[in-house]
Write a structure and sequence with these properties.
- Helices cover 70% and strands 0% of the residues.
- By secondary structure, the protein is mainly α.
Length: 187
Amino acid sequence: MKHGVKSLTMDEIARQMGMSKKTIYQFVDNKSDLIKLTMQDFLEEERKLMDSILKNSINSIDEMIKMIEYWLQVVREFDAKTLNEVQKYYPETWKMYNEYRFNFMLGLIKTNLENGVKEEFYRNDLNSDVISKIYILAVEILLNQELFPTKQYSYVTIYREFLSYHLRGIVSAKGLNYLEEHNLFKS
């Protein structure tokens, strides 16, 4: 996650795990299989964590903030080029990731928006279908190395700016008061 997947070799994995490549190949067919299984495991753990966030949030803004805090923690632990490399060199894994984003994550965001409107924390005139899709696609844009090269921009900084932009665009007056009262636009 921290150094990308293209340059990672099975020899390096075996060395860091203190085992032979032969042992690793008892569990995976090749590097592509390992990356796919790793992504599956990561996405399943994220699903469980999102379920926990949903159960333990007091309102839609609290839920969104907790999701944001989790995603910020995740992005601190990986280089933005990792997903670009997965997209370019591991299309089957990228397809799985995209299905997750456009099914599970899109559903989470859309439900959060709809709940926020019901709670009157979000604007009652927003289109949850459109906004949730914009959100999902915007996160992909933030990873674009041509627009935001990692040498020039910290992904955490970019993501925080986007989330401030997103939240300020969807909250109602009641939601803005809640954000400001709880100092949720902190850096």
